Amino acid sequence: MKFPLFLFLVVIVNTSVSSQNKQFIYGFQDIPQSLLENPGGEVFFDKHIGIPFLSGVYLNVGTNNGLISGLFTNDGVAINNKFQSIIHSLSTKDFFSVNEQLDIVNIGYRLQNEKDYLSFGIYQEFDFISYHPKDIAILFYQGNTDGNGNTDLNSTYALNDANIKGEMIGVFHAGISRRVNNKFTIGARAKLYSGVFNFQSHHNRGLISSRLDQGNNVQHLINNADVTFNSSGLTKSANKTFASNTFRSLFFGGNLGLGLDVGFTYRLKDNMTLSASLLDLGFISYSNDVNTYKVKGDVEINGIGVIDPPTDNTLDYWENLNIDFHSQVPIDTLHSTYLSFRSPKINTSFMYKFGRYYSSLACNDSSKLNNKTYKNEVGIQSFFIFRPIKPQMAASLFYTRRLSNIFKAKIMYTADAYTFSNIGLGLSSQLGKFNLFAAADNVLGYSNIYSTKKISFSFGMNLVFE
After folding, report:
1. In a 3-state reduction of DSSP, which class is residue 232?
2. pTM for the structure as a whole
């Protein structure tokens, strides 16, 4: 039996679509959004007001394999053959990732004691990750054949590879950065999550195999199955316009959770700093529009033969197949609340400043620890994010140069799960009270968009008052 190509496309797109590493923003003290990456960051201004919906925009799309270039390279090989080669060559550790964030409101100001800087706001985030479900992909693509149309009764397919998680949330946050003394700054940020929708499936187990029954017909077996798929908000998103449902659910849509960020910055010397942060230590309780599907135990399936569907009445064909499948596979549907834990992130950085600048804007006011007295900054950053299979890591070397009182530039080299040749560029400008920043990651990959493994960019606009 062999699934048609379009069905495999649906499967591979929906189960193979992580990193949220903002190496440009982290530690960049001129940008107010750096406090979202380290609530214990040093603050060199008295107040900031983000331009609504434009104060911080971030998008990261990437894959750690050659899936895109392998599919779309014009090499004369049929796409069906490419699919067959790709699904066998990818491993269960391969992934394709999407993360997006939009700053809606972001405001901050220094308290009268001049030691504390309070910041608060709202942002929206979408995050989707899944690892390549190799056995399941092979089963869906070639069924119980050996790839050449011959029946294969000797292979088993693991359900353990199904690891997927996607969600859209609204985040209400309030944080404070306290300058303990001229060397040490600490901070924390409380978060209230509002879940728009969520779907997740991980820690599954089970095996699928085929055999001949007494009538010499193919029988499919699911052994020791324990598969769970949780979802919340998907039915509402389907029945109502996506925009209206998203906007309403971002603001206390019924799926609520709590989170915490903490961080610090320590000045080893006046021009040498060490910093770290732990972000998104929290959870969301999904109780609104919940559907949990479970398959557990041993299942025998008879009489289902999946072949290329007819050109006529295709929808009826798949509907009848769906009814036949559900009549034989016991799927429990639950509507009880479930918890979804956020993916905690850890940032660390060491930075060394050199080259006296003596800006006309600089001052000797130690309460503000003015950062415009050095032209250059070099350092190293690391990033960890905890994911269902294993943590993912990135390490960056960076060089920052203050070009003038107005412009400051940063260049980064990053090695991560996507690529070991990631060059990023960013620029921040301060035109009076108006702050503008923009950055792009993996700029060398833009020359051939089909071969690049990662695309990431961010930009923002703020009013900053010193």
Report:
1. strand
2. 0.83
